[in-house]
Write a structure and sequence with these properties.
- By secondary structure, this protein is α+β, with helices and mostly antiparallel strands.
- The chain folds into two domains: about 20-50 and about 200-220; about 50-195, no CATH class.
- Helices cover about 25% and strands about 35% of the residues.
- It contains two helices and ten strands, in the order αββββββββββα.
- The protein has helices at about 15-50, 200-220, and strands at about 55-60, 70-75, 80-85, 90-95, 105-110, 120-125, 135-140, 150-160, 165-175, 185-190.
- Strands 2-1-10-9-8-6 form a six-stranded antiparallel sheet, with no helix packed on it. A four-stranded antiparallel sheet has the order 3-4-5-7, with no helix packed on it.
- Strand 8 and strand 9 (about 165-175) form a beta hairpin.
- It is globular, with a radius of gyration of 24 Å.
Length: about 220
């Protein structure tokens, strides 16, 4: 929707002031239009991605991460992987390839052994170290970290009447040995319509921000 201009006749600003103001107003209009285009595109892509329930085990990692080893991993049942989620006193997500190779697991635990519910869990510790804090433990392929820290966000957790997991969605970040340079960032989806974070949207936003900054400097 464009701007609605007033057609009433009124005394305008002096010519010198009007010419100084108009470029900035035009610049703000373009910035607003760009932001609207980005968010409309983001909403549309997320809507399309969330049309069907997804089962995905995904992570990426830094080269200094002992567990992830700098690799990016994306698996679905259509690729021949077995992905499951169980909920007892903590939530455990697992991913196995043919012959159990590769194999990856993530443990999500609330503080004080409370049931895991939808919400954000920060300042995590290795399970069993400090029960007053939530726990996150990402491991696999014979590799595990001692003293990891991090955080996770439970986006979806639905159980049936027997306590079995019907749908689940979580995003997580683990720092091996508590070192923020040794990060592992991942997303688990199990029969959930919530899409995994889309890096391309972040890149698109960065392009828009750079374009706006360059335009402002050119008009300065």
């Amino acid at each position: 929707m464009g701007h609605v201009g007033c057609q009433c006749e009124r005394a305008g600003p002096p010519a010198s002031l009007s010419s100084a103001v108009r470029p900035n107003t035009h610049e703000l209009d373009i910035a607003q239009i760009m932001k609207r285009i980005f968010w409309i595109g983001a909403i549309a892509l997320n809507f399309l991605a969330a049309a069907d329930a997804q089962t995905i085990f995904y992570f990426t990692s830094s080269p200094t991460s002992f567990v992830g080893g700098g690799q990016t991993f994306y698996a679905t049942p259509a690729d021949g992987y077995t992905i499951g989620v169980s909920d007892t006193w903590r939530v455990q997500a697992s991913c196995y390839g043919p012959g159990f190779n590769p194999n990856w697991q993530v443990l999500f635990q609330a503080a004080n052994y409370a049931p895991v519910t939808v919400g954000e869990y920060t300042d995590t510790r290795e399970p069993g170290v400090d029960p007053s804090r939530p726990s996150l433990y990402f491991f696999g392929q014979g590799r595990a970290s001692s003293g990891p820290t991090g955080y996770f966000d439970i986006l979806d957790l639905t159980l049936d009447t027997n306590g079995a997991v019907v749908s689940f969605a979580a995003d997580f970040v683990q720092y091996d040995h508590g070192d923020t340079a040794a990060w592992n960032s991942g997303s688990i989806r199990f029969n959930s319509p919530i899409p995994i974070p889309e890096p391309n949207l972040l890149g698109l936003l960065a392009v828009f921000c750079c374009f706006s900054l360059v335009r402002r400097r050119l008009r300065a």
